[in-house]
Amino acid sequence: MWFDPDYAEMHYKFKLPWSLLYKKEPEIIIDAPFEVIPGEETVLFIVIREANRFPVTLLHFEAVFTSENSCITKALSLQEEVKTPFCFKAIPCGNLPAGNYEVQASVTVQISNKRKRIQRYNLTGLKKKPLHIQVLQEAIPKPNGYMAGDTHAHTYISADPVEFGASPAVLQQAARSVGLDFVLCTDHSYDFAFSGEDYMVRTDASVRYQKLREEIAELSDYPKLIAGEEVSVGNSRGQNVHLLFPGNPFFVPGEGDCGRQWLHNKPTLSIPQVVSQTELPCFAAHPKECMGRLERFVFRRGDWHAEDLLQNSKNPIAALEFWNGSRDKGFELGRAFWISELEKGNYILPLGGNDAHGDLNEYTGVKIPLFQLKQSYAHVFGYVRTVVQGSDPLTAFRGKNLYVTDGPALWWTRENDSVTFHFKSSKDFGKLKKLTLFAMESASKKEAPVQAQLFQNSDYEAQVQISLDGKKYVRAEAETEFKRFALTSACPVLPNNVRT
Questions:
Q1: Which of 69 and 114 is assigned the larger pLDDT?
Q2: Buried/exposed code over 456-467 (b: 16+ C-beta within 10 A; e: otherwise)
Q3: Of 81, 86, 152, 447, which one's alpha carbon is 20 to 30 angstroms from that of 396?
Q4: Is pLDDT of 499 > 50?
Q5: For the ranges 22-26, 369-373, 477-481, which has the lowest average pLDDT?
Q6: Among 387, 394, 439, 433, which residue's Cα sits nearest to residue 410?
Q7: Please, are residues 435 and 455 in contact by the beta-carbon 8 Å criterion?
């Protein structure tokens, strides 16, 4: 919990008399989706947390959008008092021409009769970075019959002594901006169990979960939001790991690493105890995430292992979310884990999400509680997306055909004993630079690249066909000239009872 990306909570003192982060002001952040697809309006958000403790009056908003070819100013008189625990105020800024914009945004407020101009945020000790927004020239490439989604996102339910997330309405607006068709809202199971007003006071978790479901149900149908949980569960070694459980109609408890129990951090339920309660697909969240020794010791956190995937059970783990916002060491270790499962015949799906707690443009989180904050572009909402085949996000994960990307499309189609891999990019994401096909031969125990090609001055589309003869499965990875990346699920050569 203390090491996750999030909107930073700066008031909690852990019963101590001081904190270097503390201010007698609500947290105030100006945020915006990192990307705007053609035809969508650019919308900025003023995010305010704990105005119930520190009332604030919003007086004036200003944003200057600067690109290579233009400079556009948006100014707005607000005159609005805020006294609620959460406030997410949308500021529509019109349809901007395509381009890469640096946005200097500020809001003038009045707190305790003092007037103050806040540029980007009032968080302690962070450099005042501008927003960066790319208004796309072209539609995001995606094959017909597919849906793109962020499979790991947090709402304001995920609020505790160091973090808080965005409202479902904000996530839906942001999803529309960046071109998503669905969002899986996966809030921490342990945060449902505690009050949003006092992080250490217990409340009825089932009631909070149902209220979130009702709030999401009141939104428009598109982009589709699905309520769920990121459940803290026990792996086969008695350590806490996280399980993404989207769409569950009931609350599942999990407080093993919530941080409120100090060193008494043991799992509430095991992985089998959770997945046996449902027929819905469940996913392993960041299965090989890199953690420090302190985090592993204090929160008793561990990794996902092969035996945790429950391959021969009635409801095996459907996917591994090893692309969690960035291609870091956790990505490399997680991909290796995924490949090792493919080599054993477990054709589990890859998954890409962002673990964003709000974090529409960058994340601003707690690095050291009471002492230091941090900021990064590693976990931005909607940046990494999973693109599934079908019209229902959950049933699509029962199939075998999807791809994960931060831009270009890369998918496969199968005809008899051959598979064709299709690549499609855009001016925004760059031309194809490298396409690699991987296969596991029937007589081999390891997969290997069977075709790798570097492209010079390539076009934005490509197709490569490969025979399935003598192979157990094939898959592909692609990278563009702008370092945008995509990978497919494995296309297996399997008996008829296995879905392809």
A1: 114
A2: eebebebebebe
A3: 447
A4: no
A5: 369-373
A6: 387
A7: yes
> What whole-number distance in Å separates Cα of residue 119 and Cα of residue 125?
13
Same domain as 207, residue 94: yes
Quick check: 500 pLDDT over 70?
no
The CATH code of the domain that includes 423 is 2.60.40.730
> 476 with 370, same domain?
no
The one-character DSSP state at 208 is H
* Backbone angles phi and psi of 458, in degrees to 5: -70, 165
Of the three residues 345, 379, 398, the one that is the final residue of a domain is: 398
- Cβ 186 vs Cβ 230: under 8 Å: yes
Q: Write out the residue range of the structural domain in which residue 420 sits.
A: 407-492
What distance in Å separates the CA atoms of residue 304 and residue 343, rounded to the nearest whole number?
17
Instruction: Say which range, 41-55, 286-300, 481-495, has the weakest mean pLDDT.
Output: 286-300
From CA 199, how far away is CA 317, in angstroms rounded? 31
Residue 240's pLDDT is 94
| Count: domains in the chain | 2
- Asked if 280 and 389 sit in the same domain, the reply is yes
The pTM of this model reads 0.94
Q: Do 386 and 473 share a domain, yes or no?
A: no
Query: Looking at the structure, do residues 414 and 377 belong to the same domain, yes or no?
Result: no
State the virtual CA torsion across 190, 226, 278, 390 in degrees, nearest 10: -150
Residue whose token pair is 């004036």: 60
Burial class of residue 406, CB neighbours in 10 A (0-12, 13-18, 19+): buried
